[in-house]
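Researcher: Next entry in the queue.
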Amino acid sequence: MATFLYKLGRSAFRRRRLVALLWVALLALAGVGAATAPTATSSSFSIPGTEAQRAFDLLEQRFPGGSADGATARVVFKAPAGQSMKDPANKAKVDKTVAELKDGSDQIAQVTDPYTAQTISRDGSTAYVSVAYKVNAMELTDASRDALKETGRHAQGQGLTVEIGGDALQSMPEQGAGEIIGVVVAGIVLVITFGSLVAAGLPLLTAIIGVGIGISTITALASALDLGTTTSTLAMMIGLAVGIDYALFIVSRYRAELAEGREKEEAAGRAVGTAGSAVVFAGLTVVIALVGLAVVNIPMLTKMGFAAAGTVVIAVLIALTLIPALLGFAGNKVVARKQRTPAATNPQSDTNPQPETNPQPETNLQSATAGRGAAQDKPNAGTRWARFVLRRPLMVLLVGVLGLGAIAVPAASLEMGLPDDGVKPVSTTERRAYDLLSDGFGPGFNGPLLVVVDGDKAAADKTVSTIKGLDGWAHVTPPTPNKAGDTAMITVVPKDRPSSVRTEELVHDIRGATGDDVLVTGATAMNIDFSQKMNDALLPYLALVVGLAFLLLMVVFRSILVPLKAALGFLLSVVAALGAVVAVFQWGWLGSVFGVEQTGPIMSMMPIFMVGVVFGLAMDYEVFLVTRMREAYVHGARPGEAIVTGFRHGARVVTAAAVIMIAVFAGFIGSSEQMVKMIGFGLAVAVLFDAFVVRMAIVPAVLALLGHRAWWLPKWLARVLPNVDVEGEGLATAAAAAPAEKELVKA
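Model: Structure for this entry, 747 residues:
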């Protein structure tokens, strides 16, 4: 593989105008496709195989035109002190609001008058208007949401306290702020890392081009493939992350090759042949993690995973072709001024290279090794850290493992669920509406259960009696039959809040006490089923992703212990990150520091989401750092020397990449949305633990303790595994043939 990528890199460098033109054309084509494609609608959210979903499907069949799975909103009114919502003046204001709501959107299925439906608290201080929509919250248009908010503002100005709750106000968080913060921080870190604005700009430029092509393609195909408007969220986050990382790896290797005296085209070829090989396999691990989301069997997650995987493939292709092409345009400006060598500043070296003026470096691995040895005379921070670890490997290993193990302890108390309006900041209308309803009607009123009885009136009445014999309910409504009389709906209001353990127990109790013809659904039951499905899928997902990646890394490193160490280190960092998330968002430790106003269960998607995203980034750092060690070891270095070489060349780059990713994810911690805040915090600490504790401390400590055994592979397995030559052993032959090929091209 290294030989093929070497030739690809040289070819892209030599034909840089054509390569750049092709990528610009692809970006323009994708942009035109996105601009002219039909507007995508939000794809419906479903959880196949769950009882809550079966109940929704049954309601669609038996209650045609109903809105059981549609979005809902509650406009909550609170009378001033000393007044009642039953007062004529207050009633007139509510009636006006009801009329305005009915005319506000064509997506509204029903608006319930509180005076007709008796949705007024016992003390008369609180009342609410129920709004049911024909579509679910993800399919609700911005115009419908705006109309709802505008009606609330009109009612607020009439002397009453008016707040709006329900999932109708839920929408995807606005994108852009986190990405902008990440790009700015990335630019600063890259300038510090490279000392050159041009070198710093290349990873940013190519990452933006890759994300632009990926997102535009998703937008263009969204309507045809029913991708929905949320599919591009993960693709944008991952595409930006790996796009910067991969370009950073290759540009850094290119600069290192120039520092060893190679001419520019040769340096580009070697950078793509070596670092590019690491990029290919790092990209494959990310693709495996993202495509593996299909095992969860939730269509929305599957689509998001495949879309993000496509963006990663684009990032890899850009790194292998567009980066060497742009390096050709950059000339000597890609190197910091004070580090420029005669070879790097020779204006002819990138256009008309003369093999006879530099006869040996690119064809002689001994001279290349000598160049590396000369560079070792100038130890950097990575070299000094590696030598420290080599002197005290056991101490570093124990401190790293025990430290992450201690942080991981809270993960044993992980409670998963989907946060409701009760965990939102008190500054939001949703939270204030939630609190008003809890005070006026009880905490369970914010999460009613919908019980669907597949039977006649007698079966429905029996179900009501059964439910009333259970604990944990506050109110049970009489059955509401359909026109055919063969199906009925029953609303059950729990005593406790929707995300509580007691409410979850009530759902399980109802399902256990009734037969197969009784199904429990509603937003609360759907959240419970979703959490359970995510929990059940976690171990199969881990086994699939880690197992396939282990096999892939075994091919890359031609070792059993190195990929095993990589997988175990990743699991340690993810569990530690989950422990930190539980401590902050579930237990409330340091909650005020991170703006957590209300503790609650951890978002159900968090563990799998963290595994998929962090696994890909962790393997990026592992592959790039350890392939440099493997390369030095294959070329004759002792195990300790190989570790030092890997850190001398890779520590600065991996550090820069990790800092950039931490900054990108940390930018989301300031969000007012609890889910976004949790994702940003979890991913930021996971990258922090994995990059700086696992990859930079535990990995070299383990390799130092293993010595030569780290690179052991049984002879029979060595014969079976393909030799992909990530270390670039075959580059000597390819480099020797390059001058002859060039002369043939000229002829």
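Model: The mean pLDDT is 83.
Researcher: Noted, moving on.
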